Amino acid sequence: MIRYLKTFIAAAQLGSFSTAGARLGLTQSAVSMQIRRLEEELNCELFTRVGKSVTVSDHGKQLLRTSEEIIRLFESMKGQTEVAATRGKIDIGAISTVQLGLLPAALADFRKKLPLVEVNVVPGTSVQLMSQIDSNDLSLAIMIRPNLKMTKGLTWSTMLRETYVAIAPLSAQETSIKALLAAHPFLRYSRRSYGGQLVDRYLKRTRLQVNDTMELDEPMVIIEMVRKGLGVAIIPYDLAAGASIRKLRVLPLGGTGFFREIGVLQRIAPAPSIAVATLLECIEAAALAKEESSAAQLKSDMAKGQR
Question: What are the CA-CA distances from residue 293 to residues 57, 149, 239, 249, 287 (Å)?
Fold first, then answer.
């Protein structure tokens, strides 16, 4: 109906259906059809037609001012909606490693663009966050790609891929993964998490033997344990970036290596909010910058680790 009113106003102001159509990007027949349907809805003639010429009828003149006021109010409502979309609060989920690595840069960029939107970050494992997305408790979750079939109505966007590496204390002398794992206690990334399940599948696939001594849920805790000489581990490289500063050795897994996908899980929405769409752009930009910086650092750390 709003579209028909706009067509009526243009035709009345310009005094021609064809000229109104040119302004609105419509054919003359489309303008005629819209005016006819509006007349049927209002049960009156808006234009007097004589041959190919049209003039605004007395009823049309009375309704023209009302139509202009309706359009003005409608545009005002749209403006209020757009302002509201740049305020408010969004709830997002993030695994702990994302909160430490990817999220700070993304949120700093987001704050510059939409300073009035409050962001509530909900911590959790990928399994927990997937459940909260499924129950519609979160707008989106930044997590490890689940090794499960997606529930209908959910969508996944990969933001970056993190290569897994072996880490060892500086005192470890072994240069091959097989020798390293055989010679030291193994600090296992918890199999309750998707990240830990990837490590478990890798070990089974390659038939590498490990000496399990601990199973830990937090990769940053694993790094500290390795640094203290309590064993070796296999974790995503991005968590051990700058290993020389952390006093760790980094060894590549070779041709049998693997990676994990970090990305965004969310519900499919017909019209995503401005805040969520903007946050996704910020996450994507932060992920690209992180991936580029990690690639150079990985090459350096591996060269030192294979000494």
Answer: 69, 32, 13, 19, 10
